[in-house]
Amino acid sequence: MTQSKAQANAESTYFPKEGLAPEAVFAELDAASANDVDWRDGRLGLYVHFGGDDVLAVAKEAYLRFFSENALGPSAFPSLKKFETEVVAWTGDLLGGHDVAGNITSGGTESIFLAMKSMRDRARARGEGGDWPEVVAPFSAHAGFDKAAHLMNMRVIRTPLRDDLRADVDAMREAVTPDTIGMVGSAPGFPHGVVDPIEDIAAVARAHDLWLHVDCCVGGYILPHARALGYRVPAFDFSVPGVCSISADLHKYGFAAKGASTVVYRDAELHSFQPYVFEDWPRGRYAVPTFAGSRPGGAVAAAWAVMRYLGRAGYERIVGDIMGACTRLAEGIHAEPELRVLGDPEGPIMTYGADELDIFAVAEALEEQGWFVTRGAEPPCIHLGMLTMMHVPVIDRYLTDLRGAVQAVRDGRVRKGAARVTYGG
To answer: How far apart (Å, rounded) are the C-alpha atoms in residues 364 and 404?
Structure first.
C-alpha cells in the first residue's frame, strides 16, 4: 500500500530508527531536489556563481581533500593556516593593499559582522561612540549591516541615494554625529549594481577620523579584473586613502565553494580588534579570529585551490566573458523603448525598469517562459542578480523571451504583476 503524504510527513519528524543503504539515501536526495531550479540552464540569476566546469571540478576536489579538517586548529592543520594566509594576502594585493591582515569567513554577512565588530571595539578603546555607536550607510547598503548592528547594540543611519542610485555623499556627511564611529560604501551595491563614490566618502571619513568599510562582497573578485580588461571601474579599494576594511566573497566571483568570504584590513593594527578572546574558562584561554569557532577546512582549501588554478590570467578570461555578456544584455534591454537599465552599473549586477509598463507584469510573463525572476523594490524593477558563466550562452534567448514578455504586457495578455519583493527566506 502506498504510504499517505500525511503519514510520510509525520514520520519525517522522528529520528529514523534504521539507516538506509547509500543508494537509497542518494535516491531520496535526488527526489527532494526535483523542484529545485536547474541553475545550469542559466535561468537563475543569483545564489549560484559558476566559473566553468573546470573551475567547479578543482573546487570540489580541493574541498573533498580537506573535508574533515578544521580551520579552528591551525596548529593541528598548518596547511589550512597557509591557505588562509595566502588567500588573504592575494586578496589584499588584488585590492590595492600591502601588508594587509584578515581572515576567510563563512560568507559576506560574517565578513560585514566582523568589520562592524572591529570598528565598534576600536571606538570603545578610544572612548568613542557612546552606548549606541552609529554607522552611516547609504540606503542601498546590504541589510547585513543592520543585522550586525542589531546583534551588537549599534545603529545604522541610512541616508538617501542620488538620482543615479549611488550614495549621496552630502547626505552622509550631514548624518555624522558625535556618536558616529564609521561609514560604509558598496562596490557595487547589491540592489542596483552600481559602485558608490568611495573616494568622496573616504574624504568625509578622513575628515571626521571615522572607519570606512567598503562592501565588495559582489565586486571584490571581479571589478579589479574588469578594470585590467579596460572596463570603467572607479577607485574603491585600498588604493583610496581612508579605506580601513573590505569584505569580498570568495564564493561569488572568486568561484570558490560555499561558504567562503574574506574580510581584509588595511593593516594588522585594525585587524587586532576583530578576534574574540575569553580567559575565564576551565579549558583555558579561548581565542578565535572569526564569529565561527569550527570552520570547514574544505572551504578554505577550495578557495586557495581555485585562486591558484586560475591566477590573474584565468580570472581575466572568465571576467571578460561575463562582462561581454553584461554589455550585450544592456544593449538588448535598451533596444526596448519601454525599458531602461537603472543606474549605469559597472559590474555584473543589472536592474531594469519601465516608466509606462508594469515591470512586475513583465516579470510574470518571463516566469511563464521558465525564467526564475527576482524583483527590486525601490525603484520597482527586475533584478538580474549576478551574471556568471552559466548566463553567457543564454543572453540571446533571454532577450528574445524578454521581447515576448514586453509584447504580452503591451497586448494586455498579462495585466498585473504581483510585487513579490524579497531576498532570502
So the answer is: 12
Q: What is the pLDDT of residues 333-351, one digit of tens each?
A: 999 999 999 999 998 999 9
* Spans of the chain, pLDDT less than 50: 1
Q: Which amino acid is at 313?
A: A
Asked whether the beta carbons of 149 and 156 are under 8 A apart, the reply is: yes
End-to-end CA distance of the chain: give it in Å, rounded. 36
Q: Return d(Cα 310, Cα 222) in angstroms, integer.
A: 13
Note the pLDDT tens digit of each residue in 64-114: 999 999 999 999 999 999 999 999 999 999 999 999 999 999 999 999 999
Q: Three cell numbers at 356?
A: 509606462
Q: What is the CA radius of gyration of the chain?
A: 23
Cα gap 112→135, rounded to integer Å? 12
What pLDDT was estimated at residue 13? 82
For residue range 284-322, list pLDDT tens digits in order. 999 999 999 999 999 999 999 999 999 999 999 999 999
Residues 304/90, Cβ–Cβ less than 8 Å: no
